[in-house]
Specification:
Layout (H helix, E strand, L loop, with lengths): L1 H4 L11 H25 L17 H11 L3 H4 L2 H27 L1 E2 L9 E2 L3 E2 H26 L4 H47 L10 H15 L2 H20 L1 H6 L4 E2 L3 H27 L1
Antiparallel strand pairs: 1-4, 2-3
Length: 292
């Protein structure tokens, strides 16, 4: 092992594209593990499949790892320089990823505004420091091990593995895009439904239009008390939306609890509230079963 660690490492720019892609997958997987343990296990005390994709990878870490390895060798070979360089570059990658996702999907997927030292809620000093430590460890300890592992495969094997993983990643991306489309569609339907209720019942004394939650609750109560056909039909529509919300939205809320939407802020807040209720009910059922 000491021989591997002391071996002179090549620049990432000299590696074949297939090996670079494998490094990207490895970094993405290591990042996913870090997210699962740091956020899911240590903070939320439960397993959460972090990351937007189905598979156990976080691509933003993959890009961050490649950016780190693109630094000059004299930086990668220095503990302090690799820490500072990794801290700056990975923070830049995370900031850019947050900005692009927000502008393209009109949704803020993570928010660090509750931390003392942050920049527009997109990055924070704590995470940047952790990125620096991970990058330093990757540059000084993991880099020679990774290159050694890559050399265990010949060119043909490396290309076959890379193509196979690329196909799996492509399928995952397509599936995730489909889920995102469904997510936005359901958010829009909840928003439109709320507007429909306001237009229809705004003048009614029993109707509470303060929020989506109060609107839906007042319509449900009115339907139960009066058995009005219109209100009953609207309640059925509400329940139908709930089923779709459960399928397409709760997964994203579980992964990104601080997410915000500019286009559908009220819809998302309502979905978050219902998600918390569903989680609390599930925990209650589990406790009841254990108590028997």
């Amino acid at each position: 092992m000491l021989e591997i660690l002391n071996t002179e490492m090549p620049s990432i720019f000299t590696l074949p594209l297939a090996q670079v892609f494998l490094l990207f997958i490895i970094f993405s997987f290591v990042g996913w593990i870090s997210e699962v343990f740091y956020v899911g296990v240590f903070h939320e005390h439960k397993f959460v499949n972090r990351g937007m994709l189905h598979g156990p990878i976080c691509p933003v870490y993959g890009f961050g790892g490649l950016v780190i390895f693109c630094q000059p060798l004299f930086i990668l070979d220095s503990w302090i320089f690799s820490f500072i360089g990794s801290m700056i570059l990975c923070s830049a990658v995370e900031y850019l990823a947050s900005y692009v996702l927000e502008k393209t999907l009109h949704t803020t997927w993570w928010d660090y505004s509750h931390y003392k030292f942050h920049l527009n809620g997109r990055i924070c000093l704590l995470n940047s420091t952790l990125f620096g430590l991970m990058g330093m460890a990757g540059a000084k300890i993991l880099r020679p091990i990774l290159y050694w592992l890559l050399c265990l495969l010949n060119q043909r094997q490396t290309e076959l593995v890379s193509v196979g993983l690329a196909l799996v990643l492509l399928i995952d991306l397509i599936t995730t895009i489909n889920r995102l489309v469904n997510f936005r569609t359901v958010m829009a339907r909840i928003k439109d439904f709320g507007e429909e209720l306001k237009v229809r019942f705004a003048e009614e004394t029993w109707f509470n239009g303060e929020s989506f939650e109060t609107m839906f609750a007042s319509v449900r109560l009115h339907a139960e008390e009066t058995k009005d056909k219109v209100s009953v039909a609207l309640v059925e529509k509400m329940d139908h939306l709930a089923e779709h919300r459960q399928k397409y939205i709760n997964t994203f809320i579980a992964k990104f609890p601080t997410m915000k939407s500019k286009l559908h802020s009220d819809s998302l807040e309502y979905a978050k509230l219902k998600f918390k209720v569903a989680v609390a009910e599930k925990k209650s059922r589990i406790k009841e079963k254990l108590a028997r």
